[in-house]
Amino acid sequence: MSQKILNKLYNKRERTIPEIANLFTEIKKFASINLLECNDLKWFEYAYSLLYSGHMVGGEVLDVGSAKSVFPYYLASKGYNVSCIDVADSQYRKHAGEKFNVKSMTGDLREFMPHLESTFDLITNLSVIEHIDRDTQAVLNLSKYLKTNGVMVISTDFFPVYIEYPDANRMIVCDRPEGSHCDSRAYTPKDFIERIIQPLEENGMKRIGETDFNNVNLNDKKERSVRGLYTFGISIFKKTQ
Q: Domain spans of the chain?
């Protein structure tokens, strides 16, 4: 029997799998009760992070690019020892962190932070790396923050053609007013493998599960999860050394 495909593109048909539906219902309820943000598209990232990654339940977690996400606070409510890091929304994260016992840090992922080395059992890097110009360096830095056998989950934006940082959001999302776009890139499967997966594997990380970044057709707009414009992909790694 083959392993589960854990390195793949967003497949909306998985949303109804009972274990995924139940988990996301619980997260949404937690968000509603505590007046936290919860994007419906995030079921894909949260489910793969918690149900299939083989992470250590209750371990040390770093949630990257947290902004106002419900995820680090939900994890803390389930017994994880959580830290979150971002370059923005520091006051929001500070106040939310005090309420839910989540440590809030402000930092630049492009710069290595020695005090975090070999600290975490799980790093969740969800929809973040597309907003970082030095994406390869950022994920290599993050890999050094994992303990041996620690797990990192990475998700990001995928498109039929590679669009280099910082132009993807401006080129793909054409219905926003000028000045409202964020800096980002969009990966093809080939570029994601070359820029993210291969450098990590060359530095002691190993993919968990099987890989199929052709599990949906990126040229079919019906398969693009974000308003028919682009979609997400995910990859899960374990630190082996």
A: 5-239
